[in-house]
Write a structure and sequence with these properties.
The complex is a heterodimer of chains A (365) and B (129). With 365 residues, chain A is an alpha+beta fold. In chain A, 18% of the residues lie in helices and 34% in strands. Chain A has a domain of 73 residues: Beta Barrel (Elongation Factor Tu (Ef-tu), domain 3). In chain A, strands 11-12-13-10-4-14 form a 6-stranded mixed sheet, with helices on both faces. Chain A has a 6-stranded antiparallel β-barrel with strand order 15-18-17-16-19-20. Chain B has one domain: OB fold (Dihydrolipoamide Acetyltransferase, E2P). Classes of the chains: A alpha+beta (365), B alpha+beta (129).
Chain lengths: 365, 129
């Protein structure tokens, strides 16, 4: 990143430095890449509990009737039949059907919504909402006063239970308001790791107290963006800027189930056209035959050496002890098909795999 | 950062321990720490001829891939067989059990292109500023 770009800090920057974190620029933010090391932090998440600072992510509050506010037409996911206190994952598109961002919608009340978006997209997302919401909608960007701590891992319920006694009632992809250290806050049972976990939306200026209080529990360890990326790739969850961007449609990305063709939304016409003529590219997940990992600059080839696309993400998978990757390819592959990844000089064999790579998570426990 | 007194060093953070005409090669503490958890190492075949500062080992950590350059020219006579199954040995013991390749050194002149331990220590300090 050029030195003249000033990175934003979350309210926990000093805490990360005190814990010895290696920091990295991500989406315009100065974020912890790792504390003890990615493999150690991987074990904390998959075996006990890990704590992520995700205060960089964006939160918008929207008030108004779902249809007349214009909100329904911005999001591809079905929102009309959503019960209060539930969350849904979806996307918002440009007119060409490309993904402006992927997001999670929270229905707080019949006419009140929270939309959680990617840190790197906050500005353009806000502009998109403001351009397409009607005058009847009230829109607020509360990103810079809302911290977000993600508590993730098989023991996360037990840990949070000590601070929030009735957290056990929260079902997967549901949320509620809870009293937490004297603050009334939204906690949802959601995450990005494939394990049982919670996302806590907390006042920015109080975030340090919550961070410290949670880490008093010896079973909880801080974890950084490095392992977060490994965990999400093992789950084949897309990351904006890799699997998704404004030239990739949700149909190409394999996110069709988050698109509701029974309603109107921005980009629908383009998607219908794509659906009719068939998508020209498709997301594919693959496992390396060795520990060598695909990288996002790698190309993807058929087994007879024909270039058919490129990797969008790749990492070593500690769960599989193999390299794993996600790519976008122009050919149709079945699970088990042989492909290779790399460059003209160095090609590595891999098998097309079913999503997700990691199947034994505590996500729905 | 740990540095071994009698080894020689490159700017790319490789070390070589020269004994008679045999050079044992690995990466420094600084390099292993910067790479993070090492997950894969591809070593050259025995009898491969390498030039000084030519890439001859590829190494991967969880999130990155990089090349290792030979500190001196020579012929590969032995590779560390343990690294295929347990590449993390390089993280734990980069100067001892985590050695990568032994070469038969072609020309001792080339040591003049390398840094002593003291020079390498100063070099590391200069990187921090």
């Amino acid at each position: 990143m050029p030195p003249d770009v000033v990175l934003k800090n979350t309210p926990l920057e000093q805490e990360h430095l005190a814990l010895g974190a290696k920091m990295v620029g991500f989406g315009g933010w100065n974020m912890p890449l790792q504390y003890e090391g990615i493999l150690q932090e991987f074990d904390y998440n998959r075996k006990t509990v890990s704590l992520f600072d995700c205060s960089h992510m964006g939160e918008f509050l929207i008030e108004g009737d779902l249809k007349t506010s214009g909100l329904d037409g911005i999001i591809t996911q079905t929102l009309e039949d959503m019960p209060v206190k539930t969350c849904r994952y979806g996307t918002m598109l440009n007119a060409q059907g490309g993904v402006i961002d992927d997001l999670i919608v929270y229905k707080i009340a019949d006419e009140k919504w929270m939309v959680v978006v990617n840190a790197s997209n906050i500005d353009k997302d806000r502009q998109h909402f403001q351009a397409h919401l009607t005058k009847s909608a009230k829109f607020q960007d509360v990103s810079m006063r809302t911290a977000k701590l993600d508590l993730q891992g098989p023991m996360s319920r037990d840990v949070l239970n000590q601070l929030v006694p009735d957290i056990g009632k929260l079902e997967y992809y549901c949320f509620d308001e809870f009293d937490l250290l004297g603050q009334k806050v939204i906690i949802s049972r959601t995450g990005y790791t494939g394990e049982l976990g919670y996302e806590i939306y907390y006042p920015w200026i109080k975030a340090k107290e919550l961070w410290k209080e949670i880490l008093k529990n010896g079973n909880v360890k801080p974890t950084g963006l490095g392992v977060r990326d490994v965990l999400r790739i093992e789950m084949c969850y897309p990351l904006y800027g890799h699997e998704l961007d404004e030239t990739i449609s949700p149909l190409e990305a394999g996110l069709k189930k988050f698109v509701d063709f029974d309603k109107d939304f921005i980009g629908k016409e383009a998607l219908l056209k794509q659906e009719k003529s068939g998508v020209k590219r498709k997301a594919v997940c693959f496992v390396s035959e060795s520990r060598r990992a695909p990288r996002s600059h790698h190309k993807i080839y058929t087994c007879d050496g024909q270039e058919v696309g490129g990797a969008t993400s790749g990492t070593f998978s500690p769960a599989l002890e193999r390299g794993i990757g996600i790519g976008l390819v122009s050919a149709a592959f079945k699970i088990g098909d042989k492909i290779s990844f790399g460059d003209e000089k160095n090609k590595n064999s891999a098998d097309v795999a079913a999503r997700p790579f990691y199947k034994n998570g505590s996500l729905k426990n | 950062m740990e540095i071994i007194e009698h080894y020689l060093y490159t700017k790319e953070h490789e070390w070589i321990n020269v004994e008679e005409n045999i050079g044992t090669i690995g990466i420094t503490d600084y390099a292993q720490s910067a790479l993070g958890d090492i997950t894969f190492i591809e070593l050259p075949k025995e009898d491969t001829e390498v030039e000084q500062f030519e890439e001859f080992v590829s190494i991967e950590s969880v999130k990155a891939a990089s090349d290792i350059f030979s500190p001196m020219s020579g012929r590969v006579i032995e590779i560390n067989p343990k690294l295929e199954d347990d590449p993390s040995t390089v993280n734990k013991h980069c100067y001892t059990k985590g050695w990568m390749v032994k070469i038969e050194i072609a020309s001792m002149d080339e040591t003049s292109n390398l840094m002593t331990a003291e020079e390498y220590e100063n070099y590391l300090e200069s990187l921090e500023h």
